[in-house]
Amino acid sequence: MTNKKESIGLVIPTRNAEATLANILVILSGSSIEFNTLIIDSSSDDKTLSIAKASNARHSVISQADFNHGATREYARKQLDCDIVVFLTQDAIPVNAELIAKLVQPLLD
User: Fold this and answer.
1) Which residues are CB-contacts of 98 (< 8 A; sequence separation ≥ 6)?
2) Cβ neighbour number for residue 51 with a 10 Å cutoff
3) Measured between alpha carbons, how far is 2 from 22 in angstroms, rounded to an integer?
4) What gap in Å lies between CA 33 and CA 55, rounded to an integer?
5) Which pairing describes strands 8-14 and 36-42: parallel, antiparallel, or unpaired?
6) In this structure, are residues 78 and 96 in contact, taking their beta carbons and an 8 Å threshold?
7) pTM for the whole structure
8) Taken in order 43, 82, 91, 21, is the CA torsion positive or negative?
9) What average pLDDT does range 14-18 have in this prediction?
10) E strand or H helix at 72
11) Which tens digits make up the pLDDT trace of 47-68?
C-alpha cells in the first residue's frame, strides 16, 4: 500500500447553468476533503462564466460547436491531471458537502 495522497478533481460541464452553478459550488465548498474543480463551459450566454470566475474553480470555455459529451469530458480530465476525477452535471445539486468524499472513498480504500 502506498502513502501517496491521491489527487482528486471535479469536472462540471456547463451551458447556461446560471440557475444552479453557484448553489452547487457553495454546497461543495464545505467539503471535508480537498479537490480541484474545473468548470468547462460551452459558450453560455447567461451569467455562468461570471459565476465560475468568481469561484475558486478553474474554468475553461469551448465553443458550443466543439462540445462533445465524451471528448469534452476527456479534455477536462486531462486539464485537471488528477488521480481521481468526478464528473457532475450542472443540474445535479448535492444534498450536502460530502458528495465528492463519499463518491471517492471506495477508490481511496
Assistant:
1) 31, 32
2) 23
3) 36
4) 17
5) parallel
6) no
7) 0.90
8) negative
9) 96
10) helix 69-80
11) 999 999 999 899 999 988 888 8
